[in-house]
Specification:
By secondary structure, the chain is of the alpha/beta class. 33% of the residues lie in helices and 14% in strands. It has two domains: 146 residues, Rossmann fold; 187 residues, Glycogen Phosphorylase B (Rossmann fold), CATH 3.40.50. The radius of gyration is 21 Å and the shape is globular. The termini are far apart.
Length: 363
């Protein structure tokens, strides 16, 4: 053993959740041996930015969107093997940012000497220290800050997610970027949870409006299942079958990302690039892209929002009734704000618009 404190971070969910953990990971690695228990995609996302981070893998059955409590279908052999491996590593500290009793039970089963988290539904019995949020609208990034500050890390609101895009460049990414001669807008139409997807025809209408005013190269990244491919005719280039590493390399090179409430929004923000994200059933107070250069487009159309992705209707009205006519003015306003702040180039504006110089004159 190295003699350093050995920390287990439990984050069993998606790419966005892992990205939001990066400020804590960076601080923890300064003086501790850090292990991340996560799904297998974590290494491709995080290793290029955090070479000292060690990975343990499990696809927890309770992270499935549907059928998560069909206990007879769980891979009990893999789960028990993971617990045995965790106990062998003899952790000094285990951490979960989620108020999830299943995480807390898993941390207790790991045998970690100290276990820190946000207790809920009596799960405090599995923790040696249970924290309370000062506000129930606290952002996930603020959750990580609270845990970090409890451990003596230097974390504040100016600390954002941290990914280093050059570490993700592959030959394919470099070849794609070499063809881009204008400011790069990326349109990512997908989301792992289908109910979070703004209709792709709405994205198409948005791009047509942006084309009238701005001169940019549009890179379309449809969802792996093909959702969004109907916007291909509006794109300068379309890329499919990306690895996680290639996805980060491209998102980190964007001048602007247009997307849904999804992992790519957090990845792009973690690379320091601006994001405009359309939200539906999710809650921006908890999961918006972190930072003041980003914009969430949302309307409280449905009285049941946020519904945590379990929509009671045949379609997600919070998104299907959020029309382009409602969203476009807000998006144009944000792009103009980014230009005025120097975060986007003034050369984006087409010549006829450039002389007008303000959104109020765009008509």
């Amino acid at each position: 053993m190295s003699g350093k404190r050995r920390i287990l971070i439990t984050e069993l969910w998606g790419l966005g959740d892992l990205t939001l953990a990066t400020p804590f990971i960076r601080e923890a690695l300064k003086d501790s041996e850090v292990f991340l228990l996560s799904k297998p995609h974590a290494k491709e996302l995080l290793h290029p930015s955090f070479s000292g981070l060690q990975f343990l893998y499990i696809t927890a059955p309770w992270t499935s969107h549907r059928g998560k409590y069909r206990l007879w279908e769980w891979d009990w052999k893999a789960l028990l093997a993971t617990i045995a491996r965790l106990r062998d590593l003899q952790f000094d500290l285990a951490i979960s940012v989620r108020n999830d009793p299943r995480d807390h039970l898993l941390m207790w089963l790991s045998g970690a000497r100290k276990r820190l988290g946000f207790g809920v539904y009596k799960s405090e019995i599995f923790l040696t220290q249970s924290l309370k949020r000062p506000s129930r609208r606290q952002h996930r990034m603020e959750d990580w800050m609270q845990i970090g500050n409890e451990l003596g890390f230097a974390m504040n609101e100016e600390v954002g997610a941290v990914l280093r895009p050059p570490g993700y460049f592959t030959l394919r990414v470099e070849e794609i970027l070499e063809r881009v001669k204008k400011p790069l807008f990326i349109l990512h139409t997908g989301s792992q949870i289908p109910v979070r997807r703004w209709p792709s025809k709405y994205f198409g209408a948005l791009i047509q409006e942006l084309r009238k005013r701005y001169d940019f190269h549009l890179l379309l990244i449809p969802d792996p299942d093909g959702y969004g491919l109907d916007c291909d005719w509006l794109a300068d280039s379309t890329i499919t079958s990306l690895t996680t590493r290639e996805l980060v390399g491209l998102l980190g090179s964007a001048d602007l990302l247009l997307c849904n409430d999804s992992g790519p929004a957090h990845i792009t923000a973690g690379c320091g690039r601006p994001v405009i994200a359309v939200f539906g059933p999710g809650e921006p107070a908890w999961f918006r892209p972190w930072g003041d250069q980003h914009r969430v487009v949302i309307r409280d159309i449905c009285p049941h929002r946020p519904c945590f992705d379990y929509c009671r209707y045949s379609e997600a009205k919070c998104l299907t009734e959020l029309t382009p006519e409602m969203a476009v003015p807000e998006i144009l306003e944000q792009i103009e704000s980014l230009i005025e702040r120097g975060l986007l180039s003034k050369a984006l504006r087409k010549q006829s618009i450039r002389s007008l110089g303000s959104l109020g004159s765009l008509g």
